[in-house]
Write a structure and sequence with these properties.
With 361 residues, this protein is an alpha/beta fold. Helix content is 38%, strand content 12%. The chain has 13 helices and nine strands. Strand 1, helix 2 and strand 2 form a beta-alpha-beta unit. The relative contact order is 0.13.
Length: 361
């Protein structure tokens, strides 16, 4: 996520960029460093890609240099499993030298004492760790490797100890993908997250085109009526959530639940307003392709093996996408997106010169 409310000070420039379908600033860029992963999660096919990763340190360093010049504020490293890259610490250190925040999503299983120390000393600003259930057997089944739960918990504790030892402020967020396999256990996840020293708990509705992991109507109602209220009470009391709505990733109304049953997690938001990701956000895939976001990872704006990031960001493919978004033509992928919904609502108010930005949902 990124703090888009801060753009109020640049509202005029942002509005002009949208009107002209011109680049604004890639405020937050996600870089998938590699395809490889040491787990085999049932909701993810990255571990099965088997493709080489052309993102060398030199190419990534040039890209990070470009991002800094273009006004990027935050670089989020993910994968695959990013801790498999031996140069991860160097990439974080380079990002921090350029005055950009460096954050990370990891399954946590490879966070040894040595690696945790390296990441902390490199200047890592925060980490998101994936834990899909407080029940060991459920988490391990979803992550596809026996013992993953134990290793992840050990990794989180190791990272927290390293941060404390070196006097670093390193907030840890727990991410949980909510599916039919784990939803009934999640009311107990806030206590585990709190025990691990996490500062936030984020629930992500499962993305599964096959439909096998989606919650049907009965399960959605069961989650909303039985699980989510207990989860919300505990997460709010422990400071892991700021709003009760965060415990309801599928929505709360009958219309929202109906959309979520089909994997339409945007709940028709983009039928009423544009998505502003093409002006403020970027996904760089592990093969060097640049895409507008995680919901459209195969929509290619350019290739870092052939062009600089600056040329791609200012190129015609991006200009075309911005024109379409500005003119109310969403991508087919937009209906299933659950990312940046709150931020897009804020950006829409900024675009329409509404100065009261209180509330982001």
């Amino acid at each position: 996520m990124y703090q888009v409310a801060q753009l109020a000070a640049e509202a005029a420039a942002f509005r002009q960029a949208v009107q002209d379908a011109a680049p604004f600033r890639p405020l937050m860029v996600k870089i998938k460093l590699l395809w490889a992963c040491n787990l085999a999660c049932v909701m993810c096919d990255f571990s099965r890609q088997g493709a080489p990763t052309p993102l060398t340190f030199e190419l990534l360093a040039r890209t990070l240099d470009d991002l800094a010049v273009l006004g990027c504020r935050k670089v989020h490293f993910s994968g695959g499993e990013p801790t498999l890259r031996p140069d991860l610490g160097e990439l974080i250190a380079h990002t921090r030298r350029l005055n950009m925040r460096a954050t990370l999503t990891t399954n946590g299983t490879l966070l040894s004492k040595a690696l945790a120390k390296e990441l902390v000393k490199a200047g890592l600003n925060s980490a998101c760790v994936s834990i899909d259930s407080p029940t060991r057997s459920v988490h391990d089944r979803l992550r596809g490797v026996p013992g993953a739960f134990k290793q992840t918990l050990a990794g989180v504790r190791t990272l927290r100890v390293a941060a404390e030892r070196y006097g670093a402020r390193l907030p840890i967020q727990i991410n949980a993908v909510v599916s039919r396999e784990n939803y009934a256990t999640l009311h107990r996840l806030p206590h585990l997250a709190h025990e691990l020293g996490a500062v936030h708990l984020l629930l992500l509705p499962v993305d599964d085109p096959s439909g096998e992991l989606l919650l049907n109507k009965r399960r959605l109602l069961d989650y909303n009526q039985r699980v989510a209220p207990a989860l919300a009470d505990r997460a709010l009391a422990l400071g892991l959530m700021r709003d009760v709505r965060e415990a309801f990733p599928f929505g709360r109304t009958a219309e929202e639940l109906g959309a979520s049953r089909d994997g339409r997690y945007a709940h028709e938001l983009y039928a009423h307003q544009p998505c502003y990701a093409p002006w403020t956000h970027v996904l760089i895939a592990a093969d060097g392709r640049v895409a507008p976001c995680c919901s459209a990872p195969r929509l290619t704006m350019g290739d870092l093996q052939e062009q600089s990031f600056s040329d791609i960001w200012q190129g015609e493919a991006y200009a075309k996408l911005r024109r379409e978004m500005r003119d109310g033509i969403p991508l087919p992928h937009c209906a299933g997106c659950d990312v940046f919904l709150a931020e897009n609502r804020v950006l829409h108010r900024i675009y329409h010169d509404e100065t009261d930005l209180a509330g982001t949902r």
